[in-house]
Hints:
By secondary structure, the protein is of the alpha/beta class. The protein has helices at 27-48, 103-111, 124-133, 162-168, 240-254, 290-315, 352-355, 382-389, 406-411, 515-530, 570-587, and strands at residues 52-54, 60-62, 79-85, 113-115, 118-119, 172-178, 197-201, 212-216, 219-222, 225-226, 229-230, 261-266, 322-328, 359-362, 371-373, 377-378, 419-425, 448-453, 456-460, 495-499.
Amino acid sequence: xxxxxxxxxxxxxxxxxxxxxxxxxxxxxxxxxxxxxxxxxxxxxxxxxxxxxxxxxxxxxxxxxxxxxxxxxxxxxxxxxxxxxxxxxxxxxxxxxxxxxxxxxxxxxxxxxxxxxxxxxxxxxxxxxxxxxxxxxxxxxxxxxxxxxxxxxxxxxxxxxxxxxxxxxxxxxxxxxxxxxxxxxxxxxxxxxxxxxxxxxxxxxxxxxxxxxxxxxxxxxxxxxxxxxxxxxxxxxxxxxxxxxxxxxxxxxxxxxxxxxxxxxxxxxxxxxxxxxxxxxxxxxxxxxxxxxxxxxxxxxxxxxxxxxxxxxxxxxxxxxxxxxxxxxxxxxxxxxxxxxxxxxxxxxxxxxxxxxxxxxxxxxxxxxxxxxxxxxxxxxxxxxxxxxxxxxxxxxxxxxxxxxxxxxxxxxxxxxxxxxxxxxxxxxxxxxxxxxxxxxxxxxxxxxxxxxxxxxxxxxxxxxxxxxxxxxxxxxxxxxxxxxxxxxxxxxxxxxxxxxxxxxxxxxxxxxxxxxxxxxxxxxxxxxxxxxxxxxxxxxxxxxxxxxxxxxxxxxxxxxxxxxxxxxxxxxxxxxxxxxxxxxxxxxxxxxxxxxxxxxx
Length: 602
């Protein structure tokens, strides 16, 4: 049976007081002391429960009216709460005109700062890697696609992560939700990358109730973890949005608000498969398109979950010294119910619909509340911004791509960021008509790339699905592409230029009108490319099959796999060496070979 809502049951009460036993004439004094401690704990428990009402099935909801914040001696370091939604479309929030009701997100954004020139990456792994390292994909080797469950790949271990830097300055660090940064080795797991605790999934998607995922026929397994072990105890058919919210409540209930905490809450919603508890469908019966209706129900549930997270922050004394950041990881997928209208394109593309995201900051610590920030902000910026807010240090030898944008957001100052490298993917399907000639000898336009410099955005290669998908596309069981504004790419087209400030919907290509600007941006791409590391995208490893790991997706790579098997004899070794040498001579010289991927300039 589907759970009733996404609030979660009440968090556990504080631990009971210890029994005090005193010998002889100290017994009476001990009894009084015990009574005094018990009274304090009882009072504290009752005050913690303020603002919560119990509904049926043990769930919680907020009482009407405002509830006073419990008084605490706050740390000078703010509590940092980063909420990452999955596949939420640009239009899919109430304050962007959506028909989907998101009262919590609307209220938090209205009372905080809305980020209306905010960019992420077009797919899951890249956004998450850039958030946690402050570096572009080209500087971590994750330029291409996502990390697949069967790949021996993960976020490179030599990158200092955000939670690791926060731990250095005394933060307790917790992650709840979707990891999707690789797990083939134990060293890749969240608890080895800076998180004190982890509760969530390792893969990119899975069933919301059973927490199982099939990557391909015969490649299926359980994907729910408590720290470094499969969380079989939670295999109870609980909807993941509800379950993750429960865990956040429990973490806050057991943490001392006088000590700083970093909470990374990466919800699975609203990524496919499209599943939601039945009660959330009630308000969306008028939506004919079944995918859009399911998506709307999922987003409503997520909105309610955010409300309960905010309530928990207030209930347990964190809110007054907290900074809540909300972000989607990429644009919406129209075929799975998401909408990016009026932006062009969708998830997985470098059009604005794939990379321009819903985002806002809500905090009592903001100087200018209730404002809109139109300055350029990118997901890599959270790394230096949060470390700076935490009073941490960034090593001088670390080359970050992010900027500290707190004064931009809080005080309305100009952003230190003037450009964004959206990506350079040297192994994505090449544009058939791209060439060095089309790139003025500066850049091979067959390569998929995108860059923003001030008002200008340049795309080369194959940017991906380029339709505009208006709301009426969801009126049928499609979405019906007859309603879409479709663009047939001109023969020979491999370069586009837009003034995004004047034309945020990418309707007027200016590449022929301003060849000088095209050349400038191509040179900037070329400069970035010189700093790129080799792509990490290894072939699948059959040892990753959950059948070989107790039915669970999890680390499979062991140290003994590294050891090379000795050759049978010297003659065989010599023969193998000779074959390898011939192969190299035939292939030619490729300077950027690494991790099984080679790139050639031509």
